[in-house]
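Table S2 (text version). Query chain:
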Amino acid sequence: MYKNMLEYSYQELALLVTQFQSDKNVIADIHERFVLYEAVHRYLNNHESLTMKWIEQSLQLSFPKVYSVVNHLVKKGYLIRKPSTEDKRIKLLLPTNKALNGVKLFEEMKLNELHALGISKNEVTGIPRLKDFSEATRLKIQEEFLSAEEDWS
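Corresponding structure-token output:
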């Protein structure tokens, strides 16, 4: 059962992205999803707030691309920019209630799907990492989704 779970989820996600790309509330861009989840994670765990500089360095994106991603999330109402108290030039990126509620709803939906597949909430310990998969699955993921130049060990 677990063997086909990743493939099923990928196919489902591809279908959803295709169907809902025109919906203004659906975040189809991978960079936007990462930034949103990072902002929510930091907020919920009381970690240092997200900044555009961190996004630029971590994702190795150009500043115009980072600005575009953040601006899109701000316009959609998922993030707000707040000036840092230490340095007014730095803008902290904080999730809105819309973002917090949306991520919570999405995670509940995914847990319901896992339950329908016969996997209990207790079995789900977090987001799977590439190292968590078997060697054969890792190779398949790397072949299909990752460039050969990247090191994912």
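Notes on Table S2: The chain has a mean pLDDT of 77. Residues 97-116 form the longest helix (20 residues).
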